[in-house]
């Protein structure tokens, strides 16, 4: 499903003629199969978010190749990436990333609107999704009227609404208490089991990583699997 081949990523700082190259990822290779829950674990600054941004096409690698579901996306244009994301990815964020001026219904509906789905079909799909995530009684509520767990369920519903094959999650329980964290983790496992969705989760939390079928460790831009360094 996702094949990362010898990815490097760096950026430069400083004035022209005195630039300093900062290497963030160093020869990273990994494979995630369809239907797996893969967790990338590492401390702050290890390169986790950079790796997720590369997989989702928000930044381009300095070197290397990215193949997703058989498609080489390495050299995609911004327009190609925007379409590819809409067709293949759902996103879950630590800070929920809900639009405060939109209701629960409207936040979940937004990807359907962006894709040009007709209003009647949007209404049906959103109502079905509200029931799926247990928020049918909160359709008219705004984000500030919901608990943290409810807001994350809205975020998950929005990620699911276009039926993506891959969900990328950035510290999905980082803003939640331990009880709500367990609730969300169980929900992710259920979605993976019932729908076969591939999850890539970045986290520094061992509790979150415990649900993974495959676990990777990032340290100083080098990817490890268990105790085995995957650096070539």
Automatic annotation (TrEMBL):
Keyword tags: ATP-binding, Nucleotide-binding, Transport
Superkingdom as given in the UniProt entry: Bacteria
Any one GO molecular-function label of the UniProt entry: ATP binding
Domain ABC transporter span(s) in chain numbering: 2-232
A Pfam family assignment: ABC_tran
Protein known as: ABC transporter ATP-binding protein
The species this protein was found in: Bacillus changyiensis
């Amino acid at each position: 499903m996702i094949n990362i081949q010898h990815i490097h990523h760096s950026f430069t700082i400083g004035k022209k003629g005195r630039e300093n190259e900062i290497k963030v990822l160093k020869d990273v290779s990994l494979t995630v199969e369809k239907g797996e829950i893969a967790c990338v674990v590492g401390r702050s600054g290890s390169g986790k978010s950079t790796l997720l941004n590369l997989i989702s096409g928000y930044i381009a690698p300095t070197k290397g190749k990215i193949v997703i579901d058989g498609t080489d996306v390495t050299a995609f244009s911004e327009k190609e990436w925007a379409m590819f994301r809409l067709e293949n990815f759902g996103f879950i964020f630590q800070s929920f990333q809900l639009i405060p001026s939109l209701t629960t219904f409207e936040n979940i509906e937004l990807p359907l609107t962006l894709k040009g789905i007709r209003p009647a079909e949007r209404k049906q799909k959103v109502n079905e999704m509200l029931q799926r995530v247990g928020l049918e009684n909160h359709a008219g509520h705004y984000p500030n009227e919901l608990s943290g767990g409810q807001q994350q369920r809205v975020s998950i519903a929005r990620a699911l609404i276009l039926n993506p094959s891959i969900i990328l999650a950035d510290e999905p329980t980082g803003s939640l208490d331990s009880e709500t964290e367990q609730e969300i983790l169980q929900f992710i496992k259920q979605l993976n089991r019932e729908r076969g969705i591939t999850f890539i989760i970045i986290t520094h939390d061992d509790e979150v990583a415990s649900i993974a079928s495959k676990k990777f460790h990032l340290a100083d831009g080098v990817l490890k699997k268990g105790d085995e360094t995957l650096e070539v």
